[in-house]
Amino acid sequence: MNHIQDEILIKAPVEHVWAFLCDTSHWRDFDPRSESYDFSGPYDQVGTTYVEKWKMMGFEMKGTHTVVEVAPLKLIHERIDSGPMDMFYRFEPEGDATRMTLAADYEMPGHIPGFIKSLLTRSWIERQTRQMLEDFKGLAEATVPVPA
């Protein structure tokens, strides 16, 4: 099993960062390489499932995600059948900001040819994760309500 972890400091209260992530209408904005649909319920509810499609080096992949653990304003843990993969979003307030950590334990899907798997090294996946977090940060910070 492979493991990645990255974190980012977002200049927004934890309540805003949590709500922004849980609003699935934003997902394509910070992760344009994938499409998520068929949500069975709210993202921050244990038992919610959804389907994700994405392309990786020309190969289309699809997986079903299940939210398996939620601690409001602190943690969302989901399990993805393709791979398989366990993904963890953690939220920690830091003054007026929020430290968001994304960690994942994963196997590359078995239907990807061996030479492609060797190209998809840890550093490639880490770069994609970093870009997604940077995009999320920019969008979340841009939508913080301004006090009257």
Short description:
This protein is 27% helix and 41% strand. It is an alpha+beta fold.
Write a concise keyword list for the protein shown above:
7 strands; globular; alpha+beta; Alpha-D-Glucose-1,6-Bisphosphate, Chain A, domain 4; 148 residues; single chain
Care to describe what's here?
The protein is an alpha+beta fold and 148 residues long. It has a single domain (2-142), classed as Alpha-D-Glucose-1,6-Bisphosphate, Chain A, domain 4 (2-Layer Sandwich). It is built from 4 helices and 7 strands; from the N terminus they run βααββββββαα. It has helices spanning 14-22, 27-30, 114-119, 122-142, and strands at residues 2-10, 34-37, 49-56, 59-71, 75-80, 85-94, 97-106. A 7-stranded antiparallel β-sheet has the order 1-7-6-5-4-3-2. A hairpin with a 2-residue loop joins strand 3 and strand 4. It starts with a strand and ends in a 6-residue tail after the last helix. The mean pLDDT is 89.
What is the name of the CATH architecture?
Answer: 2-Layer Sandwich
The CATH class assignment is Alpha Beta
Overall mean pLDDT: 89
Strand proportion, as a percent range, falls in: 35-45%
Q: CATH homologous superfamily - what is it?
A: START domain
Number of E-type strands: 7
Q: Fraction of residues in helices?
A: 25-40%
End-to-end separation in angstroms reads: 49 Å
What count of structural domains? 1
Question: Layout of SSEs?
Answer:
Elements: E1 2-10, H1 14-22, H2 27-30, E2 34-37, E3 49-56, E4 59-71, E5 75-80, E6 85-94, E7 97-106, H3 114-119, H4 122-142
Antiparallel strand pairs: 1-7, 2-3, 3-4, 4-5, 5-6, 6-7
